[in-house]
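Hi V.,

You were right to ask for the full record rather than a summary. Here it is.
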Amino acid sequence: MAGHGADEHPHGADRLCEAGDRVYSRAVRRGRLPRREAERVPCLMELALLHPDPDDMDWLIPTSPQEVMTRLLRGMYDEVRASQRRVGSAVAAFEWYAGLGRQVPAPGGASEGPAIRVLDGLARIQAAMDEATQACTTEVLTVQPGGIRREAELSEGLHRAMALRGRGVRMRDLYTHVARHGHGLLSYLELMGGAVEARTLDEVIERLILFDRTVAFVPANAERTMALELRHPALVEYLGTVFERLWRLAIPLTAPLPDTGIEGISHREQSIAALLAEGHQDAVIAERLGISVRTCRAHIARLSETLGAASRTQLGVRIAQAGLDGARPPVVIPPGRGSPTAR
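Predicted structure:
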């Protein structure tokens, strides 16, 4: 029966079938419903949206919509982190192979192959970017990590963006949530009009610029004074797929960030709590979220106060108890529970 249901209902909790939507909505309104009413929608049981009433096995109780939303958000964050790890591994591999390429002459006397080209120096990077811009005809996809975008950074590529806009090229940009607070970015988007669409995430991958799904540029060192120009179809397709998955999970810049559902804890503090639970240091968390270490520590102090933690060790326990580590749905922990609030 379960297998049959999976064949007829190939979906997840993020997009219920019409029958599942109708039955689950009815169960939420009533508080429970007879098991026989759910026989034609086995997907609801498979997705843990309905479960047996322990007091009467002939009835089913719905999982609360709040818990379902938390489960979906946790899955989204897991998918983002998995994509980031894969891209990080790929970039490291690119650097390693690029290093070998500099040591071994290419066939025919060429110093660089056409699939992966190492661009050493900002002038060379800018020249390659200008060349790709001139050849671009349909779309540009970019990932811009870090925090608030400085106006100087935005002005640096403005001439390329205006040239693309003039040819009707579609542009999509991914930023961290912190970038929402920069007036320079808002002015840039207003200037570009409908040619640029922007979305944000808690974290994004390292910088990526992809033209027409044919050529991509990624940093080749931490200082970003070297870059890799990638034209290998498989690599470019892979990076395009990563971008699309992140884009689907991101929030449009024009839409507000979702509420955490936990009184006294902001969306950013929820993200910091999850990274603390993974064991990251303050500097690493700040870099991944695009904020300063000082700002990061101020948020951690507020987390400690809200959760009633007097030490970092106790804060880790409180984060787990509140479900902010992503292991289970979050619950509210009243301030002052346990040890005195940290100051």
